[in-house]
């Protein structure tokens, strides 16, 4: 399975990922508050940017917390997604996620989370500094090791 | 709503009341957004009698049709006001993320008038507008102010634009800081201070819509690919921001040095982006909204008394203002001065030009050490820069006069010191020559803002695309270039993205982007007309304040003293050259040649009356 890899050091905080994500999720509108990826900014001068996005955990806390079993795994991409018809919008999944990668917006009836855009994540496509990439899951950790070796 | 336009918000600070109205589409088609909205709303709100620091001056905050979208560089937010520095029209622009939040909250423009009874900060969150007490924030530096306000509001998503001590002390070139970005020019921070307005926090949840979403996405995606491959935008700027221009300008002898006594600086290489990179001073970079250039670089001072100080910047203009113009070759001191200026909320460009003027006054014996509070204000001495910045921001000692700007300070000190006060219409000059680039010289002279490098751009002449030594064709070039900057500021787009992609002038590509965003179906003729309408209205604003042809001049140094050495040796702006260019400029603009005032028939043609 492929996963989205995050390199915070490369993230410059332009938030184009949030915008294209919302465009895809909402259909033809931009709204960063309705994106399934979020940039968290920290530091005295806002110098640290961290993209926060669903990790599609194998033993997912969100899915475990769901009282109506609305979560299922997409066969093609392996993404953990929410069945709109089953979801009751209680938000327990957002509370349970250890990474804070599920988001609520008052205008949306179900929580927002990454669905990997059917295998071609738009956030990755538009990330100019390549802070987020989409790679085989065995590459997790490898990038950090390679940096250490350098 | 069609074209993504939403509402115009009007806030009266005196009564703490708020009104909002839908943006009129005919108004939008006439003025486009950003710069256009700002000048029209300001022109109609203030009068010639308005005191810039009085209750009746207005702050107009604007975004444009491109804000909040993914078009690269669509990040800018503008603020217009009557400048306390020169009493004229000023528009200042900042990147960052403030504009996206403001537009998401549902506003195309915010007009703020009146004065708060005691210090407060304003919170705009969608349709709810609130005032919070800011007594405990008064006196605080800008980074702490932003952190405290986000804590108070319990939401880090807020973008907070605030002033520091300089704005509170009504320093005439105080800036407004948001994140690490600045609305730097013309003293907008002093207008905040005069209104007891410490900060504006904004956040929005709304959708941003465009007229033709599919066409826009296609256009943007293709533009993005072209921009990524551009040598400046795709490579040089992401690695060193605009700091590369130090080497570039110095190599052709047009780098303001020693208060523009010279335009070549032997030690320029020490403060260039390349040298700073070699010394490993770069510790990260940050982008504005939807930006691919990520030119905001965090530099860290490594040596001496400045070691450990981190600043977002300096960029080219600050390297000029605290570097070459002071003959200062110590990059660490510039990093520290840049950070201090942002924390105190003061414009680096104006401050640097003021300090350079003091240095020359000292050199010529016009000011003595006693007048300058015992500081050794000599060219090349970086040790006094931070002290001078603090004195100005706090209006201590000599700082009190200097806080009025170089024009007023030189008038008060007298003794011929106005001969080397480097300003146009009271606004201190940016780091681009008015002697070594003839078109840029004309651009400064006629600029609505005064000594700003954002009305006319130096690129075409500096790169050799146009012969920089001749005056032929320059008036036409300046007008076409100003049409581009005017529309760029109305959309609103970052120059660093727009110039490499669209070029120096308006073109069909601009028309296409605007039509995709707004659905207006403009053609290039109508777009040129919009640009002329906006720029002429800026001119009318200034004419209402008494500006005429006699004010469209350059500092005496640029019109009398040839560049003494270096590759541009001998170049200067002869008064008769400027006169010839002005004749042609006014005539092409349709303004009265004798006075430089737009006549009634031109105003009718532009639909301004």
UniProtKB/TrEMBL annotation, chain A:
Superkingdom assignment: Bacteria
The keyword 4Fe-4S appears for this protein: yes
UniProt keyword Zinc-finger, yes or no: no
Signal sequence coordinates: none
Keywords: 4Fe-4S, Electron transport, Iron, Iron-sulfur, Metal-binding, Transport
Cofactor(s) this protein requires: [4Fe-4S] cluster
PROSITE patterns for the chain: 4FE4S_FER_1, 4FE4S_FER_2
Gene3D superfamilies (UniProt xref): 3.30.70.20
Xref: InterPro entries: 4Fe4S_Fe-S-bd, 4Fe4S_Fe_S_CS, 7Fe_ferredoxin, RnfB_subfamily
PANTHER family tied to this protein: DIMETHYLSULFOXIDE REDUCTASE CHAIN B, OXIDOREDUCTASE
Protein name: Ferredoxin
UniProtKB/TrEMBL annotation, chain B:
Aldehyde ferredoxin oxidoreductase N-terminal domain ranges (all copies): 5-206
Domain of life: Bacteria
GO molecular function: 4 iron, 4 sulfur cluster binding; electron transfer activity; metal ion binding; oxidoreductase activity, acting on the aldehyde or oxo group of donors, iron-sulfur protein as acceptor
Keywords: 4Fe-4S, Iron, Iron-sulfur, Metal-binding, Oxidoreductase
Signal peptide: none
Cofactor(s) the protein needs: tungstopterin; [4Fe-4S] cluster
The name this protein goes by in its record: Aldehyde ferredoxin oxidoreductase
Family: Belongs to the AOR/FOR family.
């Amino acid at each position: 399975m492929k996963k989205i890899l995050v390199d915070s050091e490369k993230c410059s905080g332009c938030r184009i990922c949030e915008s294209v994500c919302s465009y895809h999720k909402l259909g033809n509108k931009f709204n960063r508050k309705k994106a399934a990826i979020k940039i968290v900014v920290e530091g005295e001068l806002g110098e640290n940017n961290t993209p926060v996005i669903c990790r599609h955990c194998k033993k997912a806390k969100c899915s475990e917390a769901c009282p109506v079993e609305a979560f299922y795994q997409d066969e093609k991409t392996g993404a953990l997604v929410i069945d709109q018809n089953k979801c009751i919008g209680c938000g327990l999944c957002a509370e349970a996620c250890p990474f804070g990668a599920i988001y609520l917006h008052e205008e949306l009836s179900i929580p927002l989370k990454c669905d990997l855009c059917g295998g071609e994540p738009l956030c990755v496509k538009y990330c100019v500094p390549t802070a987020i990439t989409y790679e085989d899951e065995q590459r997790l950790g490898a990038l950090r090791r390679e940096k250490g070796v350098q | 709503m069609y074209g993504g336009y939403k509402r115009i918000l009007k806030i009266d600070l005196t009564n703490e009341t708020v009104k909002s109205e839908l943006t009129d589409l005919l108004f939008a088609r006439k003025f486009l957004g950003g710069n256009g909205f700002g000048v029209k709303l300001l022109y109609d709100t203030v009068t010639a009698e308005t005191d810039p620091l009085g209750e009746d001056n207005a702050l107009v905050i604007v975004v444009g049709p491109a804000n909040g979208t993914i078009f690269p560089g669509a990040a800018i937010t503008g603020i217009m006001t009557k400048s306390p520095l020169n009493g004229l029209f000023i528009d200042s622009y900042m990147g960052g993320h403030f504009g996206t939040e403001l537009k998401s909250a549902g506003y195309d423009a915010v007009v703020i008038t009146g004065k708060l009874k005691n210090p407060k900060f304003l919170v705009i969150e969608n349709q709810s507008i609130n005032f919070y007490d800011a007594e405990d924030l008064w006196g605080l530096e800008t980074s702490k102010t932003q952190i405290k306000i986000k804590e108070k509001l319990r939401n880090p998503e807020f973008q907070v634009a605030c002033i520091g001590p300089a704005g509170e002390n009504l320093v005439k070139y105080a800036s407004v800081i948001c994140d690490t970005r600045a609305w730097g020019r013309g003293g907008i921070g002093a207008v905040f201070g005069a209104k007891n307005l410490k900060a504006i926090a904004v956040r929005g949840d709304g959708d941003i819509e465009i007229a033709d979403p599919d066409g826009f996405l296609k256009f943007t995606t293709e533009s993005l690919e072209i921009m990524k491959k551009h040598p400046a935008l795709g490579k040089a700027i992401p690695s060193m921001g605009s700091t590369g221009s130090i080497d570039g300008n110095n190599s052709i002898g047009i780098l303001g040095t020693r208060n523009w006594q010279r335009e070549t600086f032997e030690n320029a290489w020490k403060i260039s982006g390349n040298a700073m990179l070699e010394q490993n001073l770069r510790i990260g970079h940050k982008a504005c909204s939807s930006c691919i250039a990520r030119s905001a670089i965090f530099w860290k001072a490594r040596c001496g008394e400045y070691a450990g100080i981190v600043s977002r910047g300096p960029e080219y203009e600050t390297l000029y203002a605290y570097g070459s113009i002071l003959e200062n070759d110590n990059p660490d001191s510039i990093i520290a001065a840049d950070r201090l200026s942002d924390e105190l909320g003061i414009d680096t460009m104006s401050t640097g030009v003021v300090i350079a003027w003091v240095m020359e006054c000292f050199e010529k014996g016009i000011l003595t050490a006693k007048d300058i509070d015992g500081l050794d204000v000599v060219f090349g001495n970086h040790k006094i820069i931070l002290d001078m910045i603090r004195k100005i921001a706090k209006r201590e000692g000599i700082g009190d006069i200097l806080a009025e700007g170089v024009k007023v300070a030189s008038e008060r000190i007298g003794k011929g010191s106005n001969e080397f006060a480097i300003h146009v219409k009271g606004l201190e000059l940016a780091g681009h020559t008015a002697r070594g680039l003839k078109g840029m010289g004309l651009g400064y002279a006629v600029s609505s803002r005064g000594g700003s490098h954002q009305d006319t751009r130096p690129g075409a002449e500096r790169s050799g695309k146009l012969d920089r030594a001749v005056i032929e064709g320059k008036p036409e070039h300046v007008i076409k270039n100003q049409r581009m900057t005017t529309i760029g500021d109305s959309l609103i787009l970052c120059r660093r993205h727009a110039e490499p992609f669209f070029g120096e002038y308006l073109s069909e590509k601009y028309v296409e982007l605007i039509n995709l965003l707004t659905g207006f179906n403009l053609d290039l003729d109508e777009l040129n007309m919009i640009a002329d309408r906006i720029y002429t209205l800026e001119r009318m604003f200034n004419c209402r304040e008494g500006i005429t042809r006699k004010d469209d001049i350059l500092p005496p140094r640029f019109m009398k003293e040839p560049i003494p050495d270096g590759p541009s040796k001998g170049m200067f702006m002869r008064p008769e050259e400027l006169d010839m260019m002005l004749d042609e400029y006014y005539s092409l603009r349709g303004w009265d040649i004798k006075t430089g005032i737009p006549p009634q028939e031109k105003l009718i043609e532009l639909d301004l009356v």
